[in-house]
Amino acid sequence: MTPRVIFFDINETLLDMQAIKTGLASVLNGDETLVDLWFANLLHHSLVETASAQFHDFIDVGAAALTMVAYSKGISLDEATAKETIKEHITKLPAHDDVVPTLEALQSAGVTLVALSNSSDAGLNAQLTFANIKHYFSHVLSVERIRTYKPNPAVYHWACQQANVKNEEAMMVAAHGWDVSGAKATGMQTAFVKRAGKMMYPLGLCPDYSISSLKELISIIEL
Question: What residues make up the domain containing 147?
Answer without folding.
Answer: 5-16+93-220
